Amino acid sequence: MVRIPIILLALACLASCNTRHKSDGLRNEITSRLNKADGKFAVAFHDLQTDEMILVNEHERFHAASTMKTPVMVEVYRQAAEGKFSLQDSIPIINEFKSIVDESVYRLDSAEDSEFELYRNIGKKKSMYDVMYAMIIYSSNLATNLIIDKVGAKNVTATMRSLGLKDLEVLRGVEDDKAYQQGLNNTVTAYDLMVLLSKIAKGEAVSREASDGMIRILLDQKFNDIIPAKLPDGVKVAHKTGWITGLHHDSGIVFLPDGRSYVLVLLSRELVDEKAGVEAMAEVSRMIFDGVVAQEKGQ
Predict the structure, then answer these.
(1) Residue ranges of domains in the chain, CATH in brackets
(2) Is the pTM of this model over 0.85?
(3) Which residues does residue 126 pair with via DSSP β-bridges, in sequence order?
(4) Residue ranges of the alpha helices (H) in the chain?
């Protein structure tokens, strides 16, 4: 009467040990590949079916670049859910923002932005949703500053804390040079972005409806040179990238054709050869994908 539960427990332990062994092996392969690139990296992987994780330098802080735009989007949906505004409300398109250092006015240069159309609409109005959409899929800096002016950087960080993100911090909009010179930057960790994206995937960021809305936007991402770059057709990635000189990030939810999904965050900095660093992270993304597929097949 006692042997059957013991046997089942032993089999469960064996399966767990085998999964851990495979995860450790894949982690070693990942670190080995990244070590060949000249830079510093962080990785956070979360299988949403098995809860398996692979973590590398997951709590190390990185300049957020444009990955902070995902938390900003979450805050937009949170405030909309509270009735502070509708996503269809119109907001004026301006190009004047105040530095968090001394409230001096600064402007963005369209030549330094990844999206140009919004600058042609200065003096006009667009819906909150359209501006937020440009912030995510085109990584528009002008859109980002307009949205942050509306929802408040401190509110973004406070919401992240309420979701259990301990280190991610949104201090300001982008291109605030005075703040940058004083080291006042938006920061992220691979672990915190993983937690946030896992909550979005599970419908736990604001609500299921809001989370689904965020996923639909992230699926339209126009910059696809890291996580999706080497994945096969049929795999969908809802993700947000970020880059500045010497630094490239990607963070997203990967949806397999069979209905499974996982979260992957890849951060980098101090890249001597940026093209090589991006290539290494794209290869890591494929390694993770292959590992997930192999595990399902029982290999």
Answers:
(1) 27-60+189-299 (3.40.710.10), 66-184 (3.40.710.10)
(2) yes
(3) 91
(4) 3-35, 69-81, 128-137, 141-151, 153-162, 177-181, 190-201, 208-218, 274-297
